[in-house]
Amino acid sequence: MDKRINLEKECMRCQGAGKIDGKTCAACEGKGTVLTEEGKKILEYLRNSIRLSEH
Ligand SMILES: [Zn+2]
C-alpha cells in the first residue's frame, strides 16, 4: 500500500511557518499547514457521523 492520502499540506501563505511578520497566519491559524480538498472532505464526513451518533 503506497497510496497515501494527504490531509494536510504546507500553508502557501506563510510557507509553513505559521506566522507572517510576527502575526499568526490567518490562513492556517498558526499551524503552518492547511487542509487539502481531500482532508476537508474527510473532516466533513467525520463531523457528520459524529453529529449522527450524538442523537
Ligand atoms: Zn499559514
TrEMBL record:
Which Pfam families does the protein's record reference?
Anti-TRAP
Q: Which gene encodes it?
A: rtpA
Top-level taxonomy:
Bacteria, Bacillati, Bacillota, Negativicutes, Selenomonadales
**What is the protein named?**
Tryptophan RNA-binding attenuator protein inhibitory protein
Q: Which Gene3D superfamilies match?
A: 6.20.20.10
For this protein, the record's InterPro entries field holds: Anti-TRAP, HSP_DnaJ_Cys-rich_dom_sf
